[in-house]
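User: Before I run my own analysis I want an independent prediction to cross-check against. Here's the chain; please return only the structure tokens and, at the end, one sentence I can use as a sanity check.
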Amino acid sequence: MTPAVGLSWRGIVRLGLIQTALGAVIVLTTSTLNRVMVVEMALPAMLPGFLVAVHHFVQLARPRIGFGSDIGGRRTPWIVGGMLLLAVSGVVAALGTVLMAQSVYVGSLVSFLGFFGIGLGSGATGTSLLVLLAKVVAPERKPAAATLVWFMMIAGFAVTAGVAGHFLDPFSPTRLLAVTATVSVLAFLTTMVAITGVEPAKVSGQVAASEKPAFMPALQKIWQERQARQFTLFVFVSMLAYSFQDLILEPYAGLVFDLTPGQSTQLAGTQHAGVLLGMAAVAASGSLFSRHGVKLLRAWTVGGCLASALVLLALASGGLRVEDWHLSSNVFLLGFANGAFAVAAIAAMMTLASAGEPGREGLRMGLWGASQAIAFALGGFLGTVAVDVCRIWIDTPAHAYGLVFTFEALLFLAAAWLGLGIGRGNQQVVAQRAPAFGDIAVQEVMTGRH
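Assistant: Structure tokens:
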């Protein structure tokens, strides 16, 4: 079978710019505002922690958002509308932070509304963007496309953190509002330019008004699909394991390996370098072995989970051999394994969204996005709770952290077992539908839209 020619690389990069814009607003509101509340305003850390958790939990609306885009048959309005809501909500969250200096209660209420909107906006944009990629990117390009889009989101994090940080000094409430508003406006304008003309004008699968089902029956029907149900569980368990170490790895390095704050920050950089290399490896293999499709993604996903489990067990045992343990190499390998499984899972998500009943890609993607959001919200928090509980009963930090890392490794083993079912029984369905998506994209290329 001849591989389908999907969206051009130029078109994929344009969609990646939307992810960059998304990351720019998210990092400014969830990281910078977090620091301002705790440091400049001397507020309890639990306040920004609660607000960030709100941003995650509100993304339970992702299935409903995806369902709405399925009914309309187009993703562009949801991407643009979601980014507009995200941009406005980012400014509202910053305004709430500034108001906390006069009244913590009023500022907290305004910030709550802002973070609520951030969750809805990022959910609408992120879900619809992945569905659009799933529909117009050829199967053999999906691993590389998923990697590229993820890279561009991380670039949004990094560039915004650096540039915004520069303009925030010397800090003042006025500067905070001005920087947040500027980033939000640029993010929205970037999205408008990037999305124009990418989605096909005529979308197959648009549901006629007389055929529109109710949301809950449609969701129940998707849940009855074995593949969709199993992949939802896989996303939750794997992303729970993935985020479990977020808030405990650097304290572990400081308490057990006696690293300074600067050294532990460098360690985080080493981990991110491993993540990027793992993603690049998946993208390269997808280009070299495109014929294997879902099987290749399943191998990377399961292999990445197994490797993550082994490296975490090594990290736990390393605390017992501090003098001769190369922590930096261990953390780099952890990043590589995490990056490989994560981007392979995203590429599989893009592929499997089209498997099953047609016209339900958004609902499936929304279901998986909600599962991922809940896992992220719980993972970091439960990791810190687990460490605190273990340290009540275990005096030695290396043993307490080692026990938590071992539990995380078990979560990755469970995820690997669930990942063995990814794409089984659906390869033929995906293969049969892929050319249609490619043909749509080819028509767009021929008309000069990309």
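Sanity check: The longest helix spans residues 104-136.
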